[in-house]
Write a structure and sequence with these properties.
Layout lengths: L18 E4 L5 E6 L5 H10 L2 H8 L8 H8 L6 E8 L2 E10 L5 E8 L8 H15 L4 E7 L3 H8 L6 E5 L2 E7 L4 H23 L3 E5 L8 H11 L5 E5 L5 E2 L2 E2 L13 E4 L3 H14 L3 E4 L9 H16 L3 E3 L5 E4 L6 E4 L7 E8 L2 H14 L3 E6 L8 H10 L5 E6 L5 H11 L5 E5 L18 H10 L2 E4 L2 H13 L7 E6 L2 H13 L3 E2 L4 E2 L6 H13 L5 E5 L8 H15 L5 E4 L30 H19 L13 H14 L5 E2 L2 H9 L8 E4 L2 H11 L3 E5 L2 H4 L7 E5 L2 H15 L4 E5 L5 E10 L3 E8 L2 H6 L3 E4 L4 H9 L18 H17 L3 E12 L2 E4 L2 E5 L21
Parallel strand pairs: 5-6, 9-10, 9-13, 13-14, 14-15, 18-19, 18-20, 20-21, 21-22, 23-24, 23-25, 23-26, 26-27
Antiparallel strand pairs: 1-2, 2-3, 3-4, 4-5, 6-8, 7-8, 11-12, 16-17, 16-19, 28-38, 29-32, 30-31, 30-32, 33-34, 33-36, 34-35, 36-37, 36-38
InterPro entries: Acyl_CoA_acyltransferase, ATP-grasp, ATP_grasp_subdomain_1, CoA-bd, GNAT_dom, NAD(P)-bd_dom_sf, Succ_CoA_lig_flav_dom, Succinyl-CoA_synth-like
Organism: Amycolatopsis decaplanina DSM 44594
Protein name: Acetyl-CoA synthetase
Length: 897
């Protein structure tokens, strides 16, 4: 669309351009396009700028904005002239703008930041959002004029990851750069995102002061419990009870409201009834509290009115620079000796450890903490986020990635706010730190996904988690079983295990379980016998660990009658510590669940640490936990692969096509016509074998002659095409008479004049590649062989977008029927490279166009000569949520949590 055709109302900007954004210090601002009523705010903003900042922006003193300039600054068309304002409360704290140059593909860009907010990353945020808006408006290039002495502004452009050309003349730098995202610019944005989100969580978990709003003298009130727990943990900072009716609570001076507290407040724990939270928020905003932790219930979980109140609350908080945990949260913990924060309703601060735990459910939180303590699992930090109106598990993943105090991450998840982002973050984090997750509600599909979601079989769910490096478990018991190995033992070098014990029956149970998980036994289980001494038992353990064939050890033990079992446990621990073979060990010892004292290696503060041997009530549970660790270690050792975009992609053209098609259907979900399918696939270099739709025998003959014999005729009705017994398909037609007869047969069977005539593709094995939505993982690419048998058995493999080259290669080999593609029984192998190329092109299409809600390429004929798409089906619709692409922004507050 030509730029001169755009006549948009200055108030009517694209609503999706609005965003809450996170700054480098963890605070938030609200970003939106400028509107004419911002004029007064722009004047006030300009008045706060220092002379130096005005000089750098306007190349002169420019003490006030003339009326003519004020109108130009505040009235824009949101296409050729675009401006964003960053708002903190009602105040404008930064402005960025671009203006198209001479109706061409370039625009001049500039921005200015309030002196009090410089150094918070606002310049880079504005540049990202302006570049995204410019791309939507058909611009391809930014130019900027910057004073050479304005080092901070030059750095914003230089460090953005674009290829910037520079010229200098009379002290002014002329900068030019293409705004299409590059690998470097995306990496820069992701790095800044990680740092900002990690910083916001650091602010939450390392407060220097905590206000308890609703602190009570009544032991039955949660305000009493919350204050008591903070004090009992010996919090290293300052605690401020807020209670308008008492001068002190629990012996600590109280304040009528948070605004009356004389010092800064980093964290405000809110423990008042839901209907009073809004008034509390006003005081917290006025005070400049960094984070609001709401343990109060009665919001989204209580119904529509509660949800409305929750959305309003979070919107106000973010707009004023504050993040929110909750509502309906259990709270947050940090066991660091320099913090000792127990801002939860759980009675005790857990033992210090190196495990971070995120939990959505406040109701389960207390039980989780008690279970961790009973099993000897120490924690570094714990967050129960309740309704997750703002702070979510993804924020915690960003924090734990760079937290030196955390080596292991545990998650109890009920849903994903942004599944694509979760997969990206988890995959990156899991390369250095294990991530173990309980995912409940696996089969609950959101209403907006119902039309395009298909149930994924359990083995594929497991494969999808493993693609991201996440160790998935089904229960909290399995979560802790697995966590004990990760927390206390090293990763195994491979899948070879030895079993040592004093009971052949228990040893065989362990062996059977190991084989069921694909673990390899180095030898039959070693049975030292029930009469063996502790020394003999320890000697057998040493021998097993010394073997170069052993990657991990399972110790099974039944206490003998004559000698106390504790003696054997101590002998085992001493043997393991003495040898230090860096091989993981699990045990069934003394019927203890967790880490028995006799098998514990204690830290300075007396809690089990690295080297402790975990124990399980049964050999099956011990081996199950070890098997999960072995699979994770194997994932870590595999090549990570690279995100690959094949050559010849035309994403911009595809987005134009998608936009036009959705606009024609008023944004409703729609099945594309054959011609539109071919157009869209062609943008990604996916060719459909040429075809025509005909309505008479003469047209069928003409089409066959144009396409070239031999041809295939098939019914338009997809139900008939899947039923060769009804003659829904006529193959390998090489003559005019054959085409004419086939057309007449198909018309009679289907009762439809329309028939496909398609050039005959090389013979090959029929495969299917698809796209679908999934509530846990976002967009999935699937692969399998076509046919009723594969469909009946659910023989499909799945990977979540985006795909690496390794993902694409393993996807093709995962179905049980995939050996048919690789030369089963001496057949010539299919061209797997051609199939892999199609998979990567499909993944790129999904990545660029989240409006593609489902797609099926079926059949794809895989032969030694290549892979040929014979039929395709695409459904377009509004994306289920904002994808993990584009400029940095917080999850919209009305998006599903």
């Amino acid at each position: 669309m030509a730029s001169e055709d755009i006549k948009r109302d200055p108030y009517d900007y694209p609503r999706e351009w609005e965003a809450d954004v996170l700054l480098s210090d963890g605070g938030t601002v609200h970003l939106r396009p400028v509107i004419p009523s911002d004029a007064d705010g722009l004047v006030a903003f300009h008045g706060r700028l220092s002379e130096r900042t005005r000089y750098f922006r306007y190349f002169g003193a420019y003490p006030r904005i003339p009326q003519r300039d004020l109108e130009r600054f505040s009235v824009v068309d949101h296409h050729d002239r675009v401006a964003f304002v960053a708002l903190l409360g009602d105040d404008i704290v930064a402005v960025g703008r671009y203006e198209r140059l001479e109706h061409g593909p370039s625009a001049e860009v500039a921005f200015v930041v309030d002196d009090a907010h410089q150094g918070r990353g606002l310049g880079s945020i504005l540049l990202e959002h302006l570049a995204a808006a410019a791309s939507e408006s058909g611009l391809r290039r930014f130019v900027a004029e910057v004073l050479a002495e304005n080092a901070a502004m030059v750095r914003v452009f230089r460090d953005a990851g674009y290829q910037v050309s520079r010229e200098i003349e009379e002290g002014v730098l002329h900068l030019e750069f293409d705004i299409d995202p590059t690998e470097e610019s995306l990496a820069v944005a992701r790095s800044r995102e990680q740092a900002a989100e990690a910083r916001s969580v650091h602010n939450l978990l390392h407060p220097k002061s905590v206000a308890v709003i609703g602190a009570s003298t009544d032991p039955t009130k949660i305000g009493y419990v919350a204050l008591t727990n903070l004090l009992s943990a010996d919090f290293a900072g300052t605690v401020y009870p807020v209670n308008p009716e008492h001068k002190s609570v629990r012996g600590v001076r109280a304040y009528p409201s948070v605004v009356d507290i004389p010092d800064a407040v980093d964290l405000a724990l809110v423990a008042v009834p839901a209907e009073a939270v809004e008034s509390v928020l006003d005081g917290a905003l006025a005070k400049g509290v960094k984070t609001l932790l709401i343990v109060s219930a009665g919001f989204a979980e209580a119904g529509p009115h509660g949800l409305h109140a929750e959305l309003r609350l979070v919107g106000e908080a973010r707009a004023h620079g504050m993040r929110v945990v909750g509502p309906n949260a259990l709270g947050v913990l940090n066991t660091d000796a320099s913090v000792r924060l127990n801002a939860t309703l759980a009675p005790r601060l857990p033992a210090r450890g190196r495990t971070g735990f995120f939990c959505q459910s406040g109701a389960l939180g207390t039980a989780i903490l008690a279970d961790a303590e009973a099993r000897g699992l120490g924690l570094s930090t714990f967050v129960s986020a309740g309704n997750r109106a703002d702070v979510s598990g993804n924020d915690l993943l960003q924090y734990w990635e760079t937290d030196p105090a955390t080596d292991l991450v545990l998650l109890y998840l009920e849903s994903f706010g942004n599944p694509r982002k979760f997969a990206r973050l988890a995959r990156r984090l899991a390369r250095t730190k294990p991530v173990v997750a309980v995912k409940s509600g696996r089969h609950a599909v959101r209403p907006q996904l119902a039309a395009t979601s298909a149930e994924v079989d359990e083995s594929s769910v497991q494969a999808l988690f493993e693609q991201a490096g996440v160790v998935r478990v089904d229960t909290l018991a399995q979560l802790f079983d697995t966590a004990l190995v990760f927390a206390h033992q090293p990763l195994p070098a491979g899948p070879r295990i030895a079993i040592v014990g004093n009971s052949s029956a228990i040893g065989l149970l362990a062996a059977d379980t190991a084989r069921a998980h694909g673990l390899r036994l180095t030898a039959d289980p070693v049975d030292v016998g029930p009469q063996a001494s502790p020394e003999e038992f320890a000697a057998a353990v040493r021998e097993a660990l010394n073997s170069p064939e052993t990657d991990a050890l399972v110790v099974v033990f039944v206490p003998p009658l004559a000698i106390p079992g504790a003696a054997y446990a101590r002998a085992l621990r001493e043997a393991v510590v003495e040898m230090d073979k860096n091989k993981p060990i699990v045990s069934t010892f003394l019927a203890v669940e967790g880490v028995p004292d006799e098998l514990a290696v204690l830290s300075e503060d007396g809690v089990p640490t690295r080297g402790s041997v975990p124990s399980y009530p049964s050999p099956e549970r011990a081996v199950n936990a070890l098997a999960r660790v072995v699979r994770y270690a194997a994932w870590r050792q595999r090549p990570q692969g690279n995100l690959v975009r094949p050559a010849g992609l035309h994403a911009e053209q595809a987005q134009v096509i998608v936009g036009e098609l959705l606009a024609a259907e008023d944004g409703k979900t729609t099945l594309l016509s054959d011609d539109d399918v071919v157009r869209l696939l062609g943008c990604y270099g996916i060719d459909v074998v040429p075809f025509r739709v005909v309505t008479s025998a003469d047209e069928a003959v003409k089409a066959a002659e144009d396409l070239g014999f031999p041809v295939t005729l098939k019914a338009v009705d997809e139900r008939l095409r899947g039923r060769p017994d009804l003659a829904g398909v006529r193959l390998d037609l090489s003559s005019v008479d054959g085409v004419r007869r086939a057309y007449l047969d198909l018309r009679e069977i289907s009762g439809d004049d329309e028939v496909y005539v398609q050039r005959m593709a090389p013979k090959g094995i029929s495969c299917v590649i698809g796209l679908q939505d999934d509530p846990s993982f976002g967009t999935l690419v699937s692969f399998g062989l076509s046919g009723l048998v594969s469909t009946l058995l659910g023989d499909r493999a799945y990977r979540a977008v985006p795909l690496t080259d390794v993902d694409a290669a393993t996807l093709l080999r995962e179905p049980r029927t995939s050996p048919l593609l690789t030369g089963y029984r001496g057949d010539e192998p299919a061209d797997l490279a051609a199939l892999q190329d199609i998979v990567l092109r499909v993944a790129a299409l999904a990545e660029d166009n989240p409006e593609v809600r489902s797609m099926t390429l079926d059949p794809i004929l895989a032969s030694p000569d290549g892979a040929f798409v014979a039929n395709a089906r695409i459904v377009l619709g509004p994306p289920p949520s904002r994808p993990d692409t584009g400029p940095r922004r917080l999850r919209p507050i009305n998006a599903p949590a």
